[in-house]
Write a structure and sequence with these properties.
Radius of gyration: 27 Å
Largest sheet: 5 strands, mixed
Structural class: alpha+beta
Order of helices and strands: HEEEEEEEEEEHHHH
Helix content: 25-40%
Number of domains: 2
Shape: rod-shaped
Length: about 210
Amino acid sequence: MKFSSFLFLFIFLSALPLASAETYRQFENINFIEVVTLEGFPSDSIDVNLTITDPKNIILVYYSPMTYNSVAKTFNYTLTNTSETGVYTRCVYASGNGINETACRDFFVTPSGKEQTSFLDNPMLLLLGLLGFLFLALGVYQGNYFFGFISSIMFLLGGVYTMIYGFNNEQTLYTQGVAITILGLSFILMIISSYEVWGGWGGGDDKDD
């Protein structure tokens, strides 16, 4: 077998970043684009198939052919089932001139479509939390319930954000439970501050007989 034939293949996954993991958003379609060459040249005579497993090791795509794009000279496949969050694995199988090659690579699906390894990687949740505590502290320090009302809005938005995106790429019953707790506390704070801001629902206008 010629050395050039052995090397005929395959620049697998050349369109993918090597420095950081691939991360996609949950419930969104993912279009995989692969560059596969035969002795250095793209060709529609190469058979390219794809297998994808989800984080529960369930096979979502089993040895399905990828579509050759004659204009871009790439092989494409669109994954439509991304309901699970976590680490997926895709394997590309290519064959041509009697040679078979396989390349596998992990990718991530998260609620936000971003890779997060720490609470500090979530600027939106940090901002909402800091603003909420800041306005709450101002309200307590100044005895101004209006700041408490604004604080409750910040916590409310934080609860909604947590309900949708979870914590650090985790969206489970536990993160939803935390979100519900935050929402409940924010509603309590909102009701109390609103009651005080508007004079006990008009009770402050009563006059002694």
